[in-house]
Structures are given as structure tokens and as C-alpha cells.
Amino acid sequence: MIKSSEQTFFEGAPAKEDLILNLIAGITLIGLPFTFGAVVRALWLRFRITNKRISVTGGWLGKDRSQIAYSQIKEVRSIPRGLGSYGDMVLVMKDGARLEMRSMPNFRKIEDFINQQINQTTSRNSSIQSSGF
Question: What 3-state class would DSSP assign to 44?
Fold first, then answer.
């Protein structure tokens, strides 16, 4: 048996408040597209954030999966939604690609954790690269 040093910080679905607010908005004709989007997110979007990587499973029927190591992330951007109870987050990669994570519950704590992991990865990589003459 191989012991993994990977520890899960957060694993779960989007914020329930997002679904509730968008269901209420679905009463109007203008709110229907937002309601459908929130229902699809609630059914098939899942986040897993560990000390080694970030995994996002989503898409139609949850068939799309993205995994990102902290060494690939250049910047984390976030914005609160739902009166600050949840938020959206965008991870900007070093190659310019972006990964959007919508309706993240506890997004401030998760953002702090991701930034901490990025800083640890950067400090480890700089200490490895500084060896030489």
C-alpha cells in the first residue's frame, strides 16, 4: 500500500445559495437562463482542492475534468457574489490559460489556501533552481 501525502482541503459542489437565488430569479422570463445554468452547476459541477492540485469536474453530465498543479498557476482572481456568501474565482496559468470556478462556497478561505500553496511551491522551486556554482 502506497501512502499518499495528498490532503483534501475542500471537496464539494457549488454554493447552495447560488441555486436558491437563481431559482427565485427564474420566476421572471429574463432569469430563466441563469436558473438553467445554476441547475446544471448544482447537478454536475464538483470541486476538489488538495495540497497538491485543484480538480474541477463539470460540463454536461460531469464528463469534463480539469486538474491543475499549483506550479502552473500565476495568479488567482476572485469576486464575491450572493452578498459575499460565495464567489467566483479565476485561476490564471503561466501559459495564459484560465480556469473559472463559479459559485465557490467559502471562496475567501479557499483563495487564501491556494495563494499559500502557490507561494510554497514557488519557494520550493526557487531553492531547487539556486543550486550550482
Answer: helix
Could you give the count of Cα atoms lying within 13 Å of 41 in the half-sphere of its Cβ?
Answer: 24
How far is CA 63 from each of CA 29, 48, 70, rounded to the nearest angstrom?
A: 29, 15, 23
Q: What share of the chain is helix, strand, coil (3-state, %, to 5)?
A: 40, 35, 25
Query: Which residue type does 12 have?
Result: G
pLDDT tens, residue by residue, 34-53: 999 999 999 999 999 999 99
Pairing of strands 73-81, 64-69: unpaired
| Whole-angstrom distance, CA of residue 59 vs CA of residue 46 | 10
| C-alpha cell, 128 | 531547487
Sheet (strand 73-81) strand order: 73-81, 86-93, 98-105
Span 66-79, average pLDDT: 94
pTM: 0.80
Fold classified for 8-126: PH-domain like (2.30.29)
Please check whether residue 98 is in contact with residue 74, taking contact to mean a CB–CB distance below 8 angstroms. no
